[in-house]
Amino acid sequence: MNSKPQTILAEDAPAPAGHYSQAVRSGNSLYISGQLPTRADKAPLADTSFELQARRSIANMLAILEAAGGKPDDLCRVTAYIVGVQNWPEFNRVYGEMLGEARPARTVVPVPELHYGYLVEIDAIASLPGHG
């Protein structure tokens, strides 16, 4: 019997600002919505460095993953949207530091701009233990 999809809300990541969930778990699959570099208290970070924005976006994704009962090794696929292809090496460095030994499939998409002037947005799909 299939269970109904469950919405996930992590207190350590910003609450959705629109008509969507931070993440949805369906069975063992977790779908994490795009995470901008916004703090849980919604304090803006748009005027900070690319590195700080990358760290915050990844931290938001990991906080949501943890709230759903997962860890970095459970990530299957990550997509990162970054403003400026020149930021790719810096993103790769920060991403590697924060994910450690986890190596999910990944796509990095250089884009001309993101909402609110941010430089990074990241979403993910994970496979979690147990049944939702």
Automatic annotation (TrEMBL):
Gene3D superfamilies, A to Z: RutC-like (3.30.1330.40)
Family: Belongs to the RutC family.
InterPro entries the record matches: RutC-like_sf (IPR035959), YjgF/YER057c/UK114 (IPR006175)
Official protein name in the record: RidA family protein
GO terms under cellular component: cytosol
A Gene Ontology molecular function term of the record: deaminase activity
Domain of life: Bacteria
Classification via Pfam families: Ribonuc_L-PSP (PF01042)
